[in-house]
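Human: Not sure, check this?
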Amino acid sequence: MAEPCTEFRRPHETVPVDLCSFLLAVSHRGVHVSESVVPPRLHLRASGCSLLIEFPAERLPMIRHWGADLGTLDAAAAEDVCRATTRLGSWSGELDAGPTSVLPEPWTGWMGRPGLIGSRDGRDWSPAFTVDSVTVDGRPLSGYAETGAARVSIGAVDSAARLRLILTVEMLGSGLVRMRARLVNEGDRFDLQELTLYLPVPHQASELLDFAGRWGMERLAQRREFGVGTHLRENRRGRSGLDSAYVLHATEPGSDFGRGESWAVHVAWSGNHRHVAEHDSTGIRLLGGGELLLPGEIGLDTGDEYGTPWVYAAYGDGLDRVAHRFHDFLRARPHHVGPERPVTLNLWEAVYFDHDPARLVELARLAAEVGVERLVLDDGWFGARRNSRAGLGDWAVAEDVWPDGLHPLVDAVREHGMQFGLWVEPEMVNLDSDLARNHPEWIMAARERLPVEQRHQHVLNLSIPECYEAILTQLNAILDAYPIDCLKWDHNRDHVEAGIRPRGGAPGEHEQTLAVYRLLAELKRAHPGLEIESCAAGGGRIDLGILEFTDRVWVSDVSDPLERQRMLRWTGQLLPPELMGSHIASPRSHTTGRTHDLSFRAATALFGHFGVEWDLGAATEEERAELARWIALYKTHRRLLTTGRVWRGPDPCAGVWTHGVVAEDGSQALYEIASLAWIEQAAPPHARLTGLDPDRHYLVRPLYVDTPPAGLRPPAWWRDEGVRIPGAALTRIGLQVPVTHPEQSVLVHVTAL
């Protein structure tokens, strides 16, 4: 397959057609366009993906192809592709089955969900935009062009409706596509209800895959037929949500991690949002998304504008290759975290709200002894926060608990060579707090009566400048007073009736989300090197919007490894391992009550940003010694785990999952074969090791600490010194799954010879 072009170019075969001249030739609706007038087209190619965009007269741009790379095209070949992708056919009583634009418009005959919904008191509700400018990386487009990764800016106007639209469509180096739009009002007040962008998918994308969940059970995958109608996943929780669609896929039937063409979209927004899959009666299938606006939330006066969040779109043959697009994009960011992610101990399950400085200093000593590199003090250090009913909003150290401030603990942590982290929840407030008593008007509400409580707390309105400054000042004071390396930033309740009380309860979700982004950015500017973890009752705020300002996410409040196997597997559809907080749970889970061996808890936690969620003071000396050896094992393989390519499956049988991380240069890999249940077969099947080079030979050996997993019956390949196996055999035949007790994991380390 030809490599995508790395610079903007126009094949010499192309006869340039000036865009403005083309538009002038067909400058009003109803003019017949001769087939000899060729609309401008642009072919973007990167990392095995193609995006072919057509700019027809009097229409917004149309995506003629999004998917596998089409190779190098000249103008004639691009026209042939457009002809091949054209859908013709109509029945008496039916409109023509014409293609839609990235912002579907009703005037074109599209009978599905419009991309733009709004009006001026019932007028100008069906705009008809005409493109008046197209630039590619800042240069005007004329005729046909082909290039690699690039940003396309499209200006369009509806003079009658007095609306201007600026669309941005970008192909990134990873092959990921992203889109956003700005709507500018040039007339009287325009009330905007919805602005959603879409991409088409082909007819073979006949199944949908997205996610559901609840507290403690995030990322529950769900599949269904992509039938006629609208599959609409709306979220009004004021955050991404524990039950969010997360990444909405349209796939070939029976697709899995390794096979089956798949197209996916993700809305990079940390507030109310929607994901949409639309299939109309003509056979058109669309995937889209955008912000969900509350009634009256966005009213544009003359000159005002509204900008959508980015909508990201990924294509791949198999779900793994879809995930790789997101991973590669995230890892290419200049502010992405480094590979040496510090082993983290969070103290929540060790002490909860019972803060005894002397005991915490001792826990810091034990943490350093086993190899922990970052210690995080969780909830309970501030104000009247002796339980969940009081203190939120008063971000000053509790003098009755910490008479010497946090210095005794912070100093001990530093003396042991560890980093120090601190839990905060700045967007929330308890009614039993000085802040709430002094400023009740800062609590979000749609009426005089407060919304229903959740976890004894309410939402602070950070869009109110005085409230924003009060929280910023308190957080800066804490960060100035102590050498804090990391904030665990929590968000433990949904937004219910999130109105702005000084404005009569007007909806404020949009402004609130932007204020949170500003607050995070301002804190990071003021405190270089500060890391922030996104936590929201666990995995309730995981999206590419919040990850522009944070450095990892807390996958779930449940660290039970049996649950975490699923959560890590599917959270990884968007995020690489180094961004997913993944901790060794207590021997008996505080949330599910299950008991697991340390080997299963540790092997599960390895494939993320590794840490510990366990009261080390309650652990025996033998348990701490074994934990220290697991931490040492993680450090040995840390760079591989935080930079390698993730591969999942194929799972050899029901109840046994396989996944691994392969170094970018193919020199080594680490796999986990997790037996989540007893294997039905008397002779277990083979687990294939995906991602290896079939033309190389590898040394394969089991990896464990102290003793093998419980109940192990070693298969023929199990040798501590390793066995030499061709890559082709490992990828096409695999290794026989070892017999173990249920809820055990086998680690396999593979080194290229």
